[in-house]
Design a protein that fits this description.
By secondary structure, the protein is mainly alpha-helical. It has four helices and two strands. A hairpin with a 5-residue loop joins strand 1 (7-9) and strand 2.
Length: 72
């Protein structure tokens, strides 16, 4: 993906990864701290960003990943 699609630039000019991209990478390990990050960020994601995360986890981790049940 283009850099502009997986990052955003803050008002201070620093570029950050989008939360849904970070969470997709965290889904690989599925540690308690990763689940806590998911629980904190998921309610703040727009429906489009939530769908992107759900599709990304499904593609990379499979249909049986436990996070998918929380992203419906």
């Amino acid at each position: 993906m283009p850099l502009e699609e997986v990052t955003w630039e803050a008002s201070d000019g620093i570029r950050y990864m989008r939360p849904e991209v970070v969470l997709q990478h965290k889904a690989l390990q599925d540690r308690p701290k990763d689940r806590a990050d998911l629980a904190a960020a998921l309610p703040r994601l727009s429906p489009e960003r939530r769908a992107w995360l759900r599709d990304g986890v499904r593609r990379t981790e499979g249909e049986d990943h436990p996070w998918l049940g929380w992203m419906t």
